[in-house]
Structure of Co-chaperone protein p23:
Amino acid sequence: MSRHPTVKWAQRSEKLFITIDLPDAKDVKLKLEPEGKFSFSATGGADNIPYEIDMDLYDKVAVNESKANIGSRNICYLIKKAENKWWSRLLKQEGKPPVFLKVDWDKWVDEDEQDNKHGADMDYGDFDFSKLNMGGDGDFDLDADGVDKDEGDDIDTEGTEEAAPSTSEVPPSSKPEAKA
């Protein structure tokens, strides 16, 4: 009996991204038919365990314009849709998808955000991120030992001729507690 590898998917109006996670796959066979039938088989692992997938995609695809890439960690398939439209799901069958099928959130873009640029490609213009106050109230200043400079004020040094002890000489009971 064969197993199912994890399959991740994402879409745009004109294409599908299908990634099959199967490290060190051997004897990879991919088949894509114009009506949307997608088949995959391979062996993987030290024991050459057989893996198979048969899926009926939601709609028709352009087989000649689709591309596959077989890598050492996964198999990536870029499938061109026959019509440039968003699919409501990946598979024709309604209901709960198979457990091996997952959304590829690294590639996912919502339909209304498709034309926007995301991530590293995004143009931020003249926006200066250094002007953002990213936490803290500005008076929290740690010295090289990681101790707030204002915390040394609590040490009682009256009646002694020595200076206040350094943080490495403070007994454990009087060291400031680390806060999570």
User: Anything to note?
Assistant: The mean pLDDT is 78. Residues 1-84 form a domain with the Immunoglobulin-like fold (CATH 2.60.40.790).
